[in-house]
Amino acid sequence: YTTALGTADLGSGEDAQVEDGVRIGSVTKTFIATLVLQGADQGSVDLDTPVAEYLPELSEAYPDIGKVTVRQLLAMQSGLPDFEAAVTGSAALDNDFSTKTWTAQELIDTAMQSGEVKPAGQTPAEYSNTNYIVLGELLEAVTDEELPDLVTSELLDPFGLSRTDYPPADDTALAAPFLRGYVTASGVEPLTAAGGTLEPNTDVTDWTASWGGAAGIMSSALEDLATWAGTDFGSALLPESLQQERTEFEPLAEQEPLVEYGLGLMQIGSWVGHQGGIPGWTTLAMRDSDSGAIVVLAINSSGDVAALDQLVLLDQLYPDTTGLAEAIDAG
């Protein structure tokens, strides 16, 4: 069952279509994690080896990063601070934010200068986009390939994901047709945390996604995401042992008891996959581990309300599978 409701373009009034592309934010992490796990299967990456082995220069600059293992990065257990608030909080103040091309090094520098490093390996896990920026750098180091080429050759082409893209950092275009992205009222607050102002319904379609990097730069469409979910988000490429390791979930801090995290995958009730948010769009791609049902949702609006709306809808479609009611009761 597929349907599209609402408006793709507030300016023209054009209706949304199921074929429309969207930026998928953190669903990108499922692709990056699969590549790392492929590297583990092929012997180029050891999950329990410290990052210093693969990124000596970065580790020399930031010893706290060097001590973290690859597995801890994948599982959100590194203790590294997240750059997102520092980066996106400047959106309302910095006229250059929307066009700036962020490098991985700039994102890592921002993270390490803006937050406290916590002990690695602790549970519950703490969500940090910085983990996946480091993993992106690690992948480029061990493969000697750029991430757009690597994602395309190893994942997109083999699965025929023709509407999915890992763009170069300076490319802000979306392949037509697509939903234009808006920062509606629910998404304004996190972008104005730095003290600036941003009007609701601001069109951010052409804003840079480079600050998402390996943590959130990709775009896709519903059919492709459903195909990707049907491969267990790339786990079909992995041996059974790594598939099992990938789905050893731990509670995720600040989202307990609803969300747990594995190796590049979220678990919400019996659903496994990932949510994604980037200014302008909110996406959810999930596969039910009990029934095999697949649900993909995309909204051309961003913010906590849009993300919660998707979980509420998932819970309404498949009652008693998400744990949402219990989480609400628990506060």
Task: List descriptors.
12 strands, alpha+beta, globular, 331 residues, 6-stranded antiparallel beta sheet, two-stranded antiparallel sheet
Characterization of this structure:
The chain is an alpha+beta fold. Helix content is 36%, strand content 14%. The protein is built from 14 helices and twelve strands. It has a six-stranded antiparallel β-sheet with strand order 7-8-9-10-11-12, sandwiched between helices. Strands 1-2 form a two-stranded antiparallel ribbon. The protein has a two-stranded antiparallel ribbon with strand order 3-6. Helix 1 crosses helix 7 (130-143) and helix 6 packs antiparallel against helix 7 (130-143). The longest helix has 15 residues, at 28-42.
SSE order and pairing:
Blueprint: E1 7-9, E2 14-15, E3 21-23, H1 28-42, H2 56-61, H3 63-66, H4 70-74, H5 84-88, H6 104-114, H7 130-143, H8 147-159, E4 182-183, H9 185-191, E5 202-203, H10 213-216, E6 219-221, H11 222-230, H12 240-246, E7 250-251, E8 259-261, E9 266-268, E10 271-278, E11 281-288, E12 294-299, H13 304-317, H14 324-329
The strands making up the biggest β-sheet line up spatially as 7-8-9-10-11-12
List segments where confidence is low: pLDDT < 50 over at least 5 consecutive residues: none
Overall 3D form: globular
Oligomer: single chain
Helix/strand-derived category reads: alpha+beta
Order of helices and strands: EEEHHHHHHHHEHEHEHHEEEEEEHH
Query: What is the tally of beta strands?
Result: 12
- How would a textbook summarize the main sheet? 6 strands, antiparallel
